Amino acid sequence: MSARHGGGRWLLRIDDLDRDRCLPGLADEFQATLRRFGFEWDGNVCFQSHRKELYRSALAAIVSSGQSYACRCSRSKLSITQATEPGTEPIYPGTCRRDPSAAQGPHALRFAIAADQPFVEFDDAFQGRYRQDCRREAGDFVVRRRDGQIAYHLATVVDDAAQGVNEVIRGADLLSSTPRQILLQRALGSPTPRYGHLMLLTEPDGRKLAKSRRAVPLDAAVASTQLWQVLAWLEQEPPRELAAAPVKSIWDWAIPNWRPERLEGRRERRLEAGPAPA
Asked: Which H or E run includes 212?
């Protein structure tokens, strides 16, 4: 909506590098669902699984510049569980940072944050000025996994640069990940987009709605009602009659009436307690 409101282009990218989590037909279902709800993207769909050479080239540049090191630490060795989402990774203590033998046998590659790295700062469209001491608050992070797969942060940075992305709007749960991506952009000589991290919808206890028992699937039969509800949650104050209007009519109202300033400074919106939907 932000891109359309500003007269820009909206791009669709399918993050399908992790083949174990990509069920057959899932990408097609994603696209079909977006269409049913009136989302229209510009250009061709970008599949990360088709762009591996770009990622390998970027990784080689980081390795040759000396900004990475091998890490053979297992999750059990570090007493951590595997993170299932970007932004939830634990802080790595630097165990293999000065261990040349780590490159012997299977190993991951980590981006080495400089010891004198200053705070990474940027102005977020919704959260205002954000700063992070990446070395202490994030730690050296994986750019290539132990199984050879390119990690999320590196793939995202490479794609944003290759596609000319100049604005990224996403959830506030990824706010703490952004400084790491900025470090990679600087290492690769890539531009940094404008970022905006929207508030999350959460349960009264703080859990993300998408991960809770009250989350309901998208239903094309009630697409208008669900779109209207999301706009209301996002403080856009859509006219009540739009809840029964065609999907296109909702978008025709929403795009010119987008008011991002109503969301400034908010990390989450806790929904009222109530029974789980039937």
From this structure: none
Cβ proximity of 78 and 95 under 8 Å: yes
Amino acid (1-letter code) at residue 172: A
- 238-269 burial string, b = 16+ CB within 10 Å, else e? beeebbebebeebbebbeeebebeebeeeebe
Q: Are 175 and 130 in contact (CB under 8 A)?
A: yes
Of residues 193, 181, 155, the one with CA closest to residue 58: 155
List the chain domain ranges: 1-44, 51-198, 203-270
Q: What is the pTM of this model?
A: 0.89
**What sections of 42-108 are H helices per DSSP?**
52-64, 75-78
What's the pLDDT score for residue 276?
A: 38
pLDDT in tens, 1-38: 899 999 999 999 999 998 778 888 989 999 999 999 99
The two three-digit tokens of residue 4, written as one number: 């359309």
CATH class given for the domain over 51-198: alpha beta
pLDDT digit string (tens) for 118-166? 999 999 999 999 999 999 999 999 999 999 999 999 999 999 999 999 9
User: Which residue intervals of the chain are DSSP H helices?
Assistant: 2-5, 26-36, 52-64, 75-78, 134-137, 152-162, 178-188, 223-233, 247-254
